[in-house]
Design goal:
331 residues, alpha+beta, Phage tail protein beta-alpha-beta fold, 7-stranded antiparallel sheet, 8 helices, 20 strands, sigma factor antagonist activity, Ferric-dicitrate binding protein FerR (Iron transport regulator), transmembrane helix, Ferrdict_sens_TM, membrane
Amino acid sequence: MEDIISKYLNKKATVEEKTKLLQWIKEDIQNKNLFIETRDIWLLTNDIKITESDIDEAFIRFNREVNKSSQKVNRKVILPTIRNIAAVAAVVLICSVTTFYWGRNSFAPTQEEATIMVMNQIRTGKDSKDFITLPDGTEVWLNANSKISYPEVFAEGERVVSVEGEAFFKVKENKQKPFKVNTKDMNVEVLGTWFNVNNHASRSSSETVLLNGKVQVENNIGQKIILEPNQKISISKTDGSYSVSKVNAEDYTLWINEKLTFNNEQLVSILHKMKYWYGIDIVYNKDIPLDMRLSLTIRKETKEEIFKLLELITPINCEIKDNDQVTITRK
């Protein structure tokens, strides 16, 4: 493979060799890292004399930038949303050291190569959400405790992202370039539509809910299922078995709003919407006052804060179990 890398960097590789190199890079992260390391060494040494003092100075500058980057990352941890941009930061640091050599050697990666080299990753914290616009214009809402990974530039022929947790997508239509969402237990393919994906690790199944358009969902044993609007598919993480049910899809996207407002609504309706707002299961006895009417607004309050409030203003007790189930009983 070293010979093919050398040919590629010197612009002498054939199409077949480029394809083989690309496949090798995709196979393993260590292969990718080796290619990047080899490329950077080549850029720094090709037709340029580098002295030991130059290397020492570059290393000092590199360490200084890394320390600055680390300090920025540490400060961001205290914010509601944590953006994990290590991959992008690494590319920026490399470019800051080697910009001159890139220009001198006229080395520019193709779109597909850039996709492999540069990946963006955004992660949300326990009680935060985020909104992202992808390179193709697709809009994504990322729920709490979730992560999305996507390339700086989408590859030719398809748009692929990966998700852990929950995300809502408004996909920019492009019939020549299908949009794919990969998770650990299912893959979703669309052309242009609105849908919600939920595969939080704490759940026993992965779910996709379709608002409009059409999507194809593939489970972890290769079965492909087409969803229609207002349908939800639940796929077992254990054996890949699935079920499709009719739902009100708008319930599953309540969480993307800035606030949830109740104006003289019955407790039963409030609990129903809170279930989707917080992504939890709510279990209650029939003897609680479900017809009791309340007015309140939820913005960034945690579920613990809101259920504590309900205990103060209604005759109910709320117990949160395993962080994703709430049991409600009458006082």
